[in-house]
Amino acid sequence: MHRTLFALTVLVFFGTISLAGDWNGWRGPHGDGTSDEKGVPLTWSATENVKWKVPLDGPGNSTPIVVGERVFIAHAPAKSKLRTLQCYNRDSGSLLWKREVEYGDAEATHGTNPYCSSSPASDGKMVVVYHGSPGLYAYDMDGKELWKADLGKVEHIWGFGSSPVIHEGLVITNAGPGLNAAVIAVNASDGKEVWRKEYGAMKSPKADDYRGSWSTPVMFKDGDQTLMLLSLPEKLYAVNPKTGEEVWSCGGLSKLVYTSPLVGKDEVVAMCGYTGPAMGVKRGGKGDVTETHRLWLTDKPNPQRIGSGIIVGDYLYILNETGIAWCLDPKTGEKKWEKRLGAGSWSSMCLAEDRLYITNFDGNTHVLEADPTECKILAENKIGEKTNGSLAFSNGQVFLRTHKNLYCFEAKK
Fold first, then answer.
1. What is the CB-side half-sphere exposure of residue 68 using CA atoms within 13 A?
2. Rounded mean pLDDT, 283-297
3. What are phi and psi of 223, to 5 degrees?
4. Which of 67, 150, 215, 365 could form an SS bridge with 381, CB 3.0 to 4.6 Å?
5. pLDDT in tens, 345-388
6. What is the phi/psi pair of residue 13, to 5°?
7. 8 Å CB contact between 66 and 90
8. How far apart are CA 359 and CA 403, in angstroms?
9. Helix (H, G, I), strand (E, B), or coil: what is residue 11?
10. Do 27 and 217 form a contact (C-beta atoms < 8 A)?
11. Is 190 exposed, middle or buried (0-12, 13-18, 19+ CB in 10 A)?
12. Residue 293 in 3-state DSSP?
């Protein structure tokens, strides 16, 4: 199927009214980092191909989303008790509205993980944002609060980071990690809870336990059914998103997971953080498929992984937290090449114009050819500002949130 037709099919299938050019949630319209955009700039800098930039009053790790003429970011102003959702005009960068939630109770997090690290999500009619302990909030496109849902306090020394997803009338959040970790679905219409599940070993016995998932759920079509993938401590789960009921699971993960699952043609790949393992799983099956469907497992120490990779064709590409890019065969786990790309990175890989885009801590975005034979660098785009975020693509534009600014890049006509 042609990529553009596939994109439109996916948008209709998942029950949204978002436009094909929207980047409407974490990792874009397909939830996998792929974009159907054309005219995306190959190069930019702090001065080249900058359509606009707006200053931010504090650091943050969340990624912008773009819906129509609006750009949204979750943001926590520095040295404040506020957690906000901010809406900008995509053409000018002017602030259209800002909605603030004040949370006075103490909530632990890591120094590298400021509050509001979850990215918003939208179905084109409303936008939702997960603020951690303050809860999950929904607004209409003009900033009117529609509802809020208390998902429980986040109690983990490293804070939270998973983003909500909207699917067929539900908003689903991997709420945690920590003492109250659970996957929770609420009605998109009113925020009322539909189901709440604790899977396996996802809940921590204490707040400083080295256990947890910061992974965002991923929807995928498995045969004639739609399933939701959850990378959680010790296991990868495929569940029914309408009920949370487990369809299949595969063991082999460690207690710490940051990346989102990656869906290939016949397999799913899940990768752990904190030098944990990675594994490939054949799609399908019922119940515990560890013995029957697990294709490969690398249980030796691996690089730290925060950002998610991407599968393009028959190969997987990822930039590890250490700044080393890998190309793997997702069917076997075999490494095809590796190459250092400068500083470390928490960013997730994206595909646009059949090119790979990946940003590192220094705000340097490498553009690579999706080539399994060698690492071919097409461009290096430096802006000289620290960032832990990922890129968003919409209508030929690229959006990047650093610790100082929100940028919109656009190729000159």
1. 13
2. 96
3. 70, -125
4. 365
5. 999 999 999 999 999 999 999 999 999 999 999 999 999 999 99
6. -60, -40
7. yes
8. 13
9. helix
10. no
11. exposed
12. helix
- The residue type of 286 is K
The mean predicted confidence, pLDDT, of the chain is 94
Strand order in the sheet with 70-75: 65-67, 70-75, 82-89, 95-102
Pairing relationship of beta strands 182-187 and 350-352 according to DSSP bridges: unpaired
H/E stretch holding 37? none
Alpha-carbon separation of residue 346 from 116, 307, 308, 403 (angstroms) = 16, 5, 8, 13
Give the pLDDT confidence of 129-154 residue by residue, as tens digits. 999 999 999 999 999 999 999 999 99
Query: What phi and psi values does residue 50 have, to the nearest 5 degrees?
Result: -90, 110
Would you say 192 and 148 are in contact if contact means Cβ atoms under 8 Å apart? no
Q: Give tens-digit pLDDT for 185-219.
A: 999 999 999 999 999 999 999 999 999 999 999 99
Task: Identify whether the C-beta of residue 255 lies closer than 8 Å to the C-beta of residue 216.
Answer: no
Distance (Å, whole) CA 198 – CA 183? 6
Query: What is the number of residues in the chain?
Result: 413
Strands 310-312 and 170-175: unpaired
Query: Tokens 């990946």 identify what position?
Result: 358
Secondary structure class of 291 (helix, strand, coil):
helix
β partners of residue 311:
316
Q: Which residue has the tokens 């937290």?
A: 321
Tell me the C-alpha distance between 214 and 332, whole Å.
25
This prediction has a pTM of: 0.93
Q: Which two tokens stand for residue 13?
A: 């299938």
Distance, CA of 206 to CA of 209 (rounded, Å): 5
